[in-house]
Amino acid sequence: MPGMRDVEIRSRSTELLIMCIVFMLSLPVITGYALIILSSFSRDMVTNLDPSAFKPTLTNWILLFHGRTALFAGIRVNIWGIVFNTLIVALGISLLVTITGALTGYAISRMNFHGRKHIMALLILLHAFPGSVLVVGVAFIYRLFMPSYTYVVYYSFFFVILARAAIEIPMATWLMKGFFDMIPWEIEWSAIVDGASRIRVWWKILLPLIKPGLAAVMLFGFLAGWMDLIYVRTFLAEPTLAVFIEYNVHAEYAYLPLVAAAGTLYLLPTILFFLFAQKLIFTISVSGIKG
Amino acid sequence: MVVVRLDRVTKIFKGGVVGVKDISLTIKHGEFMALLGPSGSGKSTTLYLIAGIYKPTSGRIYFDDRDVTNLPPKDRNVGLVFQNWALYPHMKVYENIAFPLRLKKLPEEEIKRRVLDVARMLQIDKLLDRYPWQLSGGQQQRVAIARALVKEPDVLLLDEPLSNLDAILRISVRAELKRLQKKLGITTIYVTHDQAEALAMADRIALINEGRIVQVGTPEEVYNRPATVFVGGFLGNPPMNFLEAEVEDLDKEIFLVIGKYRIRAPERYWSIIRRLKTKRVIIGFRPEDTSIKPESLDTICLPGRVYGIEPLGRENIVVIEIGGELVKIISGRRISLTLDQMVWICPVMEKIILFDPATGKALDRLVVEEKIRAI
Ligand SMILES: Nc1ncnc2c1ncn2[C@@H]1O[C@H](COP(=O)(O)OP(=O)(O)OP(=O)(O)O)[C@@H](O)[C@H]1O
Ligand SMILES: [Mg+2]
Question: ipTM strictly over 0.85?
Answer without folding.
Answer: yes
